[in-house]
Amino acid sequence: MSAVAGDSKVATKQRLIEAAEELFADEGFDRVSVRDITTKAGANVAAVNYHFGSREGLIAVVLTRYINPVNEERLARLEALERRAAGKPVPIEEILDAFIRPFATQVRRSELSEKIFFKLMGRMFGHGCDMPPVVDQLFITMSTRFFKAIAKTLPGLAADDIWWRMHLMSGSMIHTMAHGEKLQRMSAGEAGNPTMEQTLSRFIRFASAGMRQGSEDAASEETKPQGPQVEFPF
Question: Quick one: which of 57, 170, 75 has its CA closest to 121?
Answer without folding.
Answer: 170
